[in-house]
Each structure stands twice: as C-alpha cells, then as structure tokens.
Amino acid sequence: MEGIANYYQKGLELAEAGRHKEALECLQMYLGSSPNDGQATNDAGAILHCLGRSDEAIEYFRKARTLISDSAEVLWNLAEAYLAVGNAKHAVGLFDDMSHRGILNTDVLNRTANILLEQGDKANALETLLRSLQISPDQDLLKPMVDVIRNRRPKVAFFCGLTGDVKFLTDIYTYIEQRFQVRFIDSRDIKQIHDAMQWSDISWFEWCTDVVVEASKLPKVCKTIVRLHRFEAYCDWPAKVRWENIDTLITVGNTFVKDALLRQVPALEARTRLVVIPNGVNFQKYKYVARPRGKNIACIGYLNARKNPMFLLQCMQKLHYIDPQYKLFFAGVFQDAALEQYIRYMVKALDIADVVFFDGWQDDINGWLEDKHYIVSTSIGEGHPLGLLEGMACGLKPVIHRFPGADQLFPSEHLFNIAEQFCQQVSDDHYEPERYRRFVEERYSLERQLNSINKLFLRLEAELEACKMPVACGSPL
What we know:
Number of strands: 12
Strand content: 5-15%
Radius of gyration: 28 Å
Strand order of the largest sheet: 2-1-3-4-5-6
CATH superfamily of the largest domain: Glycogen Phosphorylase B
Low-confidence stretches: 469-477
Helix content: 40-55%
Number of helices: 24
Number of domains: 3
Oligomer: single chain
Shape: globular
Largest sheet: 6 strands, parallel
C-alpha cells in the first residue's frame, strides 16, 4: 500500500514538472487501488484537462464532486472543463454553487457568455452578462452588448386592466425590461392597444378584465399572456374572453379560484395554456427582525366585505376580554361607506376603541410593521395574499381565518375557524420569527416567481423562433 501511495506523490511531482502523460499514468495506477479518493480523482481530471482531453476530465471531476461535494477546487475545475469543450449551459448550471462558495467571478461569466453567443443562445448569454454586471456594475463594455442582445429578442408590451393598479406588476416589469424591449401602455383605448400589440411579439395583460375581453377579439398579431389574480374569477369577464386568442393564462391562486374560473369557462384548459405562478415577496423590501413575542396585531389590505373585518372585531373583542393589552392596527382604506360606518360603530359598541386603530394607507408598509408582532387575516376568500406573506417575511406570526384554499398556501397550525381559536393562537407561547421568514423564503420568493415567468417567456420565444413569426417591423428575430 505504501508503494501505491508513492504513485500518487510521484504523479503530482511529474505534473508539477510538466510531464503530464507520465503523471497521468501514475495517478491512474494509484486510483486503481483507491478509486474513492476524491482529491486524487480531481487531480487526475486536472492532468487530463492539461493534456487537452477535457471530455475525459469532466467525468473525473463529476466523480470527484460526488466524493468531496464541498470542494470549491473541484467545482472550479469542472466549470473550466465544460467551457473548454464548449458546454456552456452545463457551466451555467454550476454558477449558483460557485457563487455560494465565493468563487464565481466576472472572467468566467464573460467567457461563458461569449460561448453562448457564438452558439446563438441569446437568452442564456444575456442572463450570464446580467449576472456579471451584478458582480461588477462598472463594466462599461458589457452594457452595449446587453443592449444589442436585448434588441434581438422579442418585443414585449404590458397592459394593465385596472388603471393605476400596478402594484403586482412593478417587479415583473423591471425584470423583463432588463431582458427584452418593453413598452407599458397605460390606455384603455382599443386602437392604442391594438397598435401596441402589433408592435409587440409578446403582450402581457395584467388582470383579466374588460380590456382582455376586447383585446381577445382583435386579429391575432402576437403571443398573448393574461394574468388573473382572484376577483376576476368571480366576475363575468372570463366567460367573454376568446381564449383561443390567448396563448397563456397565469393564475396566482389556489384551486378554489381555479374552480370558480372553470365554472365560468368549463373548457378553458382545452382553449389555452393554463399555468400557476404564485406571487413572490421581494426580500430586499421587507426587513426581517428577530422580534420578541409582543401584543401588536397587524391587518393589511383594503377594508371591504370580502376582507371580513366584522369577524375580526368579534375575535378582537374576545381577545381583549382575555388580555386587554393586545392592540389591533389596520393598514388600508375602506372601500364601502356603509361598511366603514358599521365597523367604526361596532368598535365603540364592543368597547375596544382604545385598542383598535385605523392607520390608513401605508406607503412604507415595511416601516409600519416594525413594531408589530402578528399578521392577521379574516378574509372569506384570497388568491395568494401578499400582505400575509410580507408580514411573515418580516418575522410576524400569521393568524389566518380558514378561507377556501388557505390550507394549500399556509401551515394548518396558523389557521383558525372560530374566534376562540384566534385567541388561542395569539396568546400561545410559541413564537418563532425566523421560521415564519424561512417559510416564505422557501416557497414564495420573488426570485422563484421571476424564474418561473422567465421560463414562460423563454418558451414563447422558442415558439416564435420555431414558427419564424415575423416581428412587427417585418424582419425576423
């Protein structure tokens, strides 16, 4: 065994001296008796790579990675070998791990992008260059390249079916704008909408409202995406849409929203492509605080009958009886004058006026949540409630009335049916801010949402190229 070990040492010395063929023979002799030595397997791969036999080296590096999975050296070597044989896509697949280990740099990213461009892969080349610019934004030479690639990709037009209500669209628009030519059309005029659709290769309609109904009746000139949130499924608009002219319908909600939609349009899934992409939380906007258990309860959102603030007051009255130190804070505005009158009246009637506060609309919801400890909802129906997820991202404990589909979105331990259960959950000693944040990070991150949307755009882009659909100006992509 000592003699076999000497082969390994001799091989390293030969490699250092540039005698790679002899070094490889020694390493292979050693690995014949010690096949699970990860470092030796990596070193043999490195020698093969130096000999220009990178295809063989890749197999050695892959095996070494299974034997010593935490090795930054192996990861780097594997990426270099992939690039040497022109397999840039496999190199891209390593970049997250490389970034996590702190070895990803602009040089390897830019070389990868060049290979991808030579292979005609505009999408992955652009993603790689954008990642390089994230690491080092001052690379002025890359910015014109990014613009050139973006201008060779499909044009995207965004429309909003609810004037001014773009709160769910902002992050998506910013993301797509970095990758495609985009326009935002803030108009309900059907001629302007049609002109923009003719300019575009892909049109995105936020909210499935009357704007979508009218647009679906126009001659088909582009790929079309419609995103439906929740309330539209309970209106009559979906039944009026010509779904054959819509390429993809995105829903963000649970199966109960989908069921309501299919009751209106039973054959919907045969008429268009239906995908589910949940909302995502932007963690840069919502600061996690490892807060101690406290007694301030937050409720976020418009105040209307669906949000069911009437029931929340009943819950609060019972909790106030148990412990008068708990306080309830609303962030939002009333959408119904009669409801507002009732709610304000009942706050006094239930003798909880000193612990219930209406703070109005909050532009800085993150700051408003800083001194809160619970995020509550008594809504009778939700698609994918961002307010709850944003509160959890800040470390607040969720307390959620069991609306239809709630158990598909949230752990059952945070759901309640009756006011007594609400009181039990709030007063329970279990309070784990880090776990609430982690739940959102693992399931509902903005990154996850945007990746899913990007895959949809890549699919549409591939379909456009496959059928060689002309762009609006008449030239091919």
